[in-house]
C-alpha cells in the first residue's frame, strides 16, 4: 500500500480536469493508494479566493476521508532545517514562498509516507530542494519519500 500526501496544488489541478469525478472515484476506491491530509494544506484550500473553494474543500475531504495529520513542532523544526539548508545551498526564495512546501515534505517524512505528489516542480520538487531533502534526511536519519509530479498521478489513475 502506498501512503500518499498531496500538495495543495494537486486539488486545484484535479478540479480543472474534465474527468475529475472519475479520477476522484478511482483515487478513493484504490485500496493500495491511501491519501492523507495535512492541516496546512486544508488551510490553504480554505483560504483560497477561488470560486471553487467549497468544491476543493469537499474534494479534499472525500479523498483524505478524515485521515489528517496536524502540524507539530517537529514538523516545523524539520521544515526549517530544510529551509536553512536551502538557503546555504544558494536558494533565494523566502520562507513565505517555501514554508508550506517544506512543511508538507516534513509531514510526509515524519509520518513515513511513501509519496509526496505535487504539481509544483519549481519549488517543492526542484532539483535544489530534492538535494536539500536528501542531505537533511541523511544527517537526521530519515527516509526520503518518493516524489510524484501531477502527471504521474494522472498516469496511474487514467490507465485503470
Under CATH at level 1, the class stands as Alpha Beta
Structural class: alpha/beta
How far the N terminus sits from the C terminus, by CA atoms, comes to: 16 Å
Query: How would you characterize the largest beta sheet?
Result: 5 strands, parallel
- Rounded mean pLDDT score: 96
The fourth-level CATH homologous superfamily is: 5'-nuclease
How many DSSP helices?
8
Descriptive overview:
The chain has eight helices and five strands; from the N terminus they run βααβααβααβαβα. The chain is α/β, with parallel strands linked by helices and 160 residues long. It has a single domain, classed as Rossmann fold, CATH 3.40.50. A five-stranded parallel beta sheet has the order 3-2-1-4-5, sandwiched between helices. Helix 5 (73-88) crosses helix 6 (95-110) and helix 5 packs across helix 7 (127-140). The protein is globular. The two termini are 16 Å apart. The model has no long low-confidence stretch (mean pLDDT 96).
Amino acid at each position: 500500500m502506498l501512503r500518499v500526501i498531496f500538495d495543495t496544488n494537486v486539488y486545484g489541478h484535479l478540479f480543472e480536469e474534465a474527468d475529475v469525478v472519475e479520477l476522484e472515484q478511482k483515487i478513493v476506491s484504490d485500496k493500495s493508494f491511501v491519501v492523507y491530509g495535512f492541516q496546512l494544506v486544508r488551510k490553504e484550500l480554505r483560504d483560497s479566493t477561488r470560486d471553487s473553494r467549497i468544491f476543493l474543500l469537499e474534494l479534499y475531504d472525500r479523498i483524505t476521508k478524515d485521515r489528517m495529520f496536524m502540524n507539530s513542532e517537529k514538523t516545523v523544526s524539520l521544515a526549517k532545517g530544510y529551509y536553512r539548508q536551502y538557503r546555504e545551498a544558494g536558494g533565494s526564495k523566502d520562507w513565505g514562498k517555501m514554508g508550506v512546501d517544506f512543511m508538507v515534505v516534513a509531514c510526509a517524512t515524519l509520518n513515513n509516507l511513501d509519496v509526496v505528489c505535487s504539481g509544483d516542480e519549481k519549488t517543492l520538487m526542484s532539483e535544489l530542494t530534492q538535494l536539500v531533502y536528501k542531505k537533511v534526511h541523511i544527517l537526521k536519519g530519515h527516509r526520503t519519500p518518493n516524489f510524484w509530479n501531477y502527471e504521474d498521478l494522472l498516469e496511474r489513475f487514467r490507465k485503470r
